[in-house]
Amino acid sequence: MFNGKSILLGVSGGIAAYKAAELARSFIREGAGVQVVMTAGAQRFITPLTLQVLSEQPVATDLFDPGLESQIGHIQMARAAHLVVVAPATANVLAKAAAGLADDYLTTVLLATTAPVLFCPAMNTRMLEHPATRRSLETLRQLGYSVLEPDAGQLACGEEGAGRLPDPPVILEAACRLLTPPSLQGRRFLVSAGPTWEPLDPVRFITNPSSGKMGFALARMAARRGAEVTLVSGPSSLASPTGISTVRVRTALDMEQAVLEHARNMDAIIMTAAVGDYRPAHAASQKIKKSSDTMTIPLIRNPDILASLGKSRPHGVRQVLVGFAAETEHLIENAREKLIQKNLDFIVANNLGESGSGFGVDTNRVKIIDPTGAIEELPMLTKDEVAARILDRVESILS
Ligand code: C5P
């Protein structure tokens, strides 16, 4: 996520300061170089040595350090950073930054940097809700800073409420959005993901092994580029991505309703969901008891959501429609047929027989086919990378 990027991680003195260690590691794991700056308060909760070892760099703490400051280190640091993340950001640091004070290393760097800054407030709920803190946050937003809303839950002080520092993956995603060019700003995307459950009785259903990973990756990557994303997902164990409106559904009929309800005004619709083609004609109201040796379940066809979107494409506005084709044989022929029959801009075909591709895994090897018949074969890529390639195509059609 952060290859070649320099992140300046500002740590201020709240109990959540200990979480900065895991956060620094997470940034480094994703390819970033991390320079840590700590306030005096932060050093009472976690030692600079811990963060120095994890970040593999001396931690800046003293604005008047003769060694570090002989080269005016704080200005160099402010210049070198691609992004500044303040996590946790205490009420004190927020107030100082909002007022433009520069009385320690961190607040001085905040004034000197031109890089985007992400504040991650974490504190007691009452401190967070105090009008003075609210005003600091409002001022910071007006000054062009980004603020990540704290999570709600059990706080270290024993109280319940908003004020928890979000987990590292949430902070990393917010940071990544700030570093990604907003090429889809103002665009609206609808993505479907996951399998459907077609009930036989209250405790059994027909489904498939789709995990939702491809659709969730597309939703996340589109949001990183600034799109407003709605994700309609069948049953999936994946957590709803932050900042994306996620609608959870179970059956193909539920999915049809949710997709058609949101389809209007979308700039692009990408159907990655593995929608069940058939459902049991009757779902028993009570658990089916075993009796005879064999059993026959009549099935009826589910609506083809993508085909109906393709039939009623809006006139006068460009709406990009993308489908997926997962096949075990005749991949290209079958995908081409779907592309035409469903009236799509392009289709992404993957061979379910290939290892490292398709259901459940984090990688995918796909072919992208367009209505001219042209086929682009992508190498084995992560699902995030496949998503990025698909979005590049959608962007070029939209523009
Ligand atoms: O025809 P097939 O199911 O293989 O087509 C796959 C594509 O159509 C996928 O994009 C899938 O999300 C979509 N689809 C759908 N409604 C169905 C079945 C598939 O929208 N009932």
What does this structure look like?
- The structure is a single chain.
- This protein is of the alpha/beta class.
- It has two domains: 6-179, Flavin prenyltransferase-like (Rossmann fold, 3-Layer(aba) Sandwich); 188-283 and 297-398, CoaB-like (Rossmann fold, 3-Layer(aba) Sandwich), CATH 3.40.50.
- Helices cover 35% and strands 23% of the residues.
- It is built from 15 helices and 21 strands.
- The chain has helices at residues 20-29, 42-45, 48-55, 66-69, 73-80, 91-99, 105-112, 125-129, 131-142, 168-179, 213-224, 252-263, 305-311, 331-341, 383-398, and strands at residues 6-11, 33-38, 83-89, 117-121, 146-147, 151-154, 160-164, 188-193, 198-201, 204-206, 228-233, 245-248, 268-271, 278-280, 299-301, 320-327, 346-351, 363-364, 366-369, 375-377, 381-382.
- The strands form six sheets. It has an eight-stranded mixed β-sheet with strand order 12-11-8-13-16-17-19-20, sandwiched between helices. Strands 2-1-3-4-5 form a five-stranded parallel β-sheet, sandwiched between helices.
- Helix 1 crosses helix 10 (168-179).
- The protein is elongated.
- The two termini are 26 Å apart.
- The model has no long low-confidence stretch (mean pLDDT 95).
- The site of cytidine-5'-monophosphate has 14 residues, from helix 13 and strand 16.
